[in-house]
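Practice problem: predict the structure.
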Amino acid sequence: MTPGQKFSHALTQECPLQIVGTINAYCALQAEKSGFRSIYLSGAGIANASFGIPDLGMTSMTDVVLEIQRITQATELPLLVDADTGWGHALSIARTVQAFESAGAAAMHIEDQQAAKRCGHRPGKVLVSPAEMSDRIKACVDSRKDKTFNIMARTDALANEGVDAAIDRCNQYIEAGADMIFAEAITDPEQYRRFTSAVSVPVLANMTEFGQSPLMTRDELRAAGVSMILYPLSAFRAMSLAAMKIYHGIREEGSQQNLLDQMQTREALYETLDYLRYEKQMDDILNRTKTE
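Answer:
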C-alpha cells in the first residue's frame, strides 16, 4: 500500500482514528510501539523543538521535508503533516505537495490563514478569502502525483466568522477537492456535531492542550461524528517538562543520582531502537571482513 492508502486504511480500522504528534523519528518509534496506527508532524513542533522559535510561520518547506524523511525512514506508520499555508502561491504549493509525497508523507493539511500565520489558538488570526483558500486546495489536488495522498483543509474561521461561516468555507473547500476537514479551535463540543453533520468528508478534532478547545474523550468525539482525533504536542509537552526537571535537579544537586527513577533506562532505549539487531549486523559484517 502507498502511504496514503495506509492512512485511509487506518481510518477504517479505528474510529475515531487517534493520531499522535511525533516531533522526531524516535518519538515515532515510541508511538508505533504504543500501538498507534497513525502519527503527526506538527509545524509548531518543528519550530519549537528543532529551531527554538515560536510557531509564527518562520520555518520553511525544506525544514519540514527533512523531518518527514527522518520519520518515514524510521517507521511505516502513515504520517499526517502540517503544511501551514503551503509556503507561497499555487506553484509553490504544488512543489510542497510533491516534496511531501516524495519524502513519504501520507497526508497533509493546509490552512486558510494568511501567509504570516499564527498559532490556531491565539488571537489576531487573519484569513484569506474562501476563493483564495479554494485555489490552494485545487493546487494541492492538481499537483499530487499519487491520488491516494490525502489533502486535508484546515479552517481557522470559527474564531473570526462563527460556526456557520466556517462550515460554509469547509463545503467550498470540499468542492475544491479537499478529502478531509480540520476545524480548528472549536470551543463547544456541540460545534463538532454541527461540522460532522454538515460536511461530506471525515472531520478531524484537534485535542491540543491549554488551547481554546475543551479536551474530550474518544467516546465523546465518536458520538459527535468525529473521524480523527489529533494530539499534536502532548508527548512534546511532557518531554519538555521532564527535561526541565532533570536540568534543574542536576544543577541544584550536582549529580543525577537521585533522578535516575525519572529517566528511561539504557535497556529500554535499546529495545525501542532494536539496538541489538543492528549490533549483530555490524558484528557479522566485521567477521566476514576478517575471514576474506
